[in-house]
């Protein structure tokens, strides 16, 4: 399954900020430390030089990835016509069969973050939620069996539990 090319404005800004930081701040610092380590002589046993070159390759790889990815991604802004239904970028409050309340935000694959309750639009829960409205029920296949959720609230502004 390929990752979707959708992203929220906030997610795009975060990736763009990381790219700029790596290019303008981190890479020049590491390049400078590698140059200093190289000037010390024998590079084959110079840990600072070896580590610095490795870190420089990691930074360059991430810069290439972010540059290409940001060009591919499509920023999706909430549309007022979406109100009342679940679409990309929505915050959704769900209740399971045991009356446990869960809160999710549907975001792009590049910005999902379990700690923030942000789930990828490509996930089974998100796919089941798309187009639904308050009081609808969804069922999701999980490793533990089918989970049933009722939609309690939908917003395109952050919700809290």
Largest sheet, in brief, is:
5 strands, mixed
What do the pLDDT scores average to?
A: 93
Query: Roughly how many Å apart are the termini?
Result: 32 Å
The number of helical elements comes to: 3
Overall helicity = 25-40%
The CATH architecture name of the largest domain reads Roll
Unreliable stretches, pLDDT < 50, 5 or more residues?
none
Outline, from the CA principal axes? elongated
Oligomer: single chain
Strand runs, count? 7
- The succession of helices and strands, N to C, reads EHHEEEEHEE
Query: What is the class of the largest domain in the CATH system?
Result: Alpha Beta
CATH fold assignment of the largest domain: Chitinase A, domain 3
Strand content: 15-25%
How do the helices and strands line up, and which of them pair or pack?
Layout: E1 6-7, H1 9-38, H2 47-72, E2 74-75, E3 91-96, E4 101-107, E5 118-120, H3 124-129, E6 137-142, E7 145-155
Helix pairs in contact: 1-2
